[in-house]
Amino acid sequence: xxxxxxxxxxxxxxxxxxxxxxxxxxxxxxxxxxxxxxxxxxxxxxxxxxxxxxxxxxxxxxxxxxxxxxxxxxxxxxxxxxxxxxxxxxxxxxxxxxxxxxxxxxxxxxxxxxxxxxxxxxxxxxxxxxxxxxxxxxxxxxxxxxxxxxxxxxxxxxxxxxxxxxxxxxxxxxxxxxxxxxxxxxxxxxxxxxxxxxxxxxxxxx
Length: 206
Description:
This protein is α+β, with helices and mostly antiparallel strands. 47% of the residues lie in helices and 17% in strands. The chain is built from nine helices and six strands, in the order H-H-H-H-H-E-E-E-H-E-E-E-H-H-H.
């Protein structure tokens, strides 16, 4: 049901009367974090992340939720608007998946029905995920805009997070800077994480 409610929110957000507000927000996110060519295999994931970010900003999801007729769907929509954003590492505990946010220090238990959690094999081979988790009665689920990072970038992402925390950089600045670094890595002719993920690029004007 959560996935269906999310899809309904995106559909309504991309249609009148909300589109005049949301589409510029989607474009702005892609401009800040990097817009991949339409034929790039990662482009659909970037677009999904842009819509997720838009729904979760400025109470957009909560405002659209008021239009839903079903009270339980409205509650879920409001829940999505309060999702926790972070940089996550996966861990298997018994038969369950736990994700640890390296930025805030919080940990979350993923529910078995979480599609993204199930899709991760071998703890995602050490890669990190930038995204949002929303709480449910029996655990948490990832929103569809989660973006997995290259496993070879993990050590450099950790360094960026450490330096950003020491400098007390704003959360949104850190996350969007990391996403832009991911964009740089994916568009390099010879991908080199040590060049793409650099502390001095956090918050840099683009």
